[in-house]
Amino acid sequence: MQILLVEDNETIAKALTYTLEQQKYNVLHTTSIEETRKMLNDKIDLIILDVALPDGNGFDLYQNIIKELNIPTIFLTARDDEIDIVKGLELGAEDYITKPFGTKELLTRIKKILLRQKKNTILTVQDISFDIDKMVVYKNNEPIDLTSLELKILHMLFLNLNKVVKRDDIIEKIWEWTGNDVNDNTVTVYLKRIREKIGDNIIETKTPLSSIFESLPHTDFFRVHKSFIVSFRYITRRDFSSLNVTGYDYGIPVSRKYTADFKEAYYNYLKE
Predict the structure, then answer these.
(1) 57-71, pLDDT tens digit by residue?
(2) Are residues 253 and 232 in the same domain?
(3) 209, exposed or middle or buried, with CB in 10 Å at 0-12, 13-18, 19+?
(4) Residue range(s) defining the domain that contains residue 179
(5) How many domains are there within the chain?
(6) Would you give the distance in Å from CA 31 to the centre of its chain?
(7) Residues 144-188: pLDDT tens digits?
(8) Are both 106 and 6 inside the same structural domain?
(9) Does 97 reside within a domain?
């Protein structure tokens, strides 16, 4: 098991490293956010993260980077403020421990977390099961023959179940894995091949709202919010901060960044 210890206090870091290595854990140690960014990879099983680091905040590091990698994390801090503890747990951390602490307490928490993670290494969606440890995919308990790249893409999708994975993120990962420049068509081809092997209903493709808007005539439709496109002809009430439209029972908000352009487009529509 590989543990990344992010701690800038040299005395604490040395003591923790010794204790963890005595328990046969492989320990990596960093002292700053910048150093940690370079060290992060999918081989790390657990992160012990000090909240107060010399170049930033451990909460921000977790929220912006670590959380996306789906690595279980224990926050480590000298502060026992209840607000900080709640914040850390609400962000999605596995646990939170305050200094000073006993090594037995920390080891117990680490073992519980790793045991819990081990139990969840098989992810299942309908009749498809993905054994994360063995990197094997099953359909109705029968192994599926996937290429190395197909397996990595599917692994990425399974680690983000019920989340939207952007095509640009997949393209970036393919470049990391292969060193080859690829485009959107490459992703389409690989997703098609994966669907042919696991079934069409496992991976759902969502079209970005921006793409939908670009396909519509801008003389009749306008994007007023990151989540809404409206047709001018169905607007029943407007004050340019919210709209009512036929067939929708709730007010539709108009984002500030769209307000000026929306006013101009709407007045042009009325003139026609």
Answers:
(1) 888 888 888 887 878
(2) yes
(3) middle
(4) 122-198
(5) 3
(6) 24
(7) 999 999 999 999 998 888 788 888 889 989 998 888 888 888 888
(8) yes
(9) yes
The pLDDT of residue 96 is 78
What does DSSP say about strands 122-125 and 128-131: parallel, antiparallel, or unpaired? Answer: antiparallel
Domain match, 243 and 167 both: no
Please give the backbone phi and psi of residue 123, each rounded to the nearest 5 degrees, phi first: -100, 135
Nearest to 269 by CA among 218, 215, 216, 226: 218
SS3 185: helix
What's the CA gap between 143 and 198, in Å, rounded? 10
CATH number reported for the structural domain that contains residue 18 in this entry = 3.40.50.2300
Within 13 Å, how many C-alpha atoms sit on residue 243's CB side? 26
pTM of the model: 0.46
pLDDT in tens, 65-91: 888 787 888 888 776 555 666 666 777
Q: Given this model, what pLDDT does residue 168 score?
A: 86
**58, amino acid identity:** G
> For the chain, what's the residue count?
272
Distance CA 58, CA 6 (A): 9
pLDDT value, residue 81: 58
- Amino acid in the structure at residue 125: V
- Tell me how crowded residue 110 is: count the other CB atoms within 10 A of its CB: 23
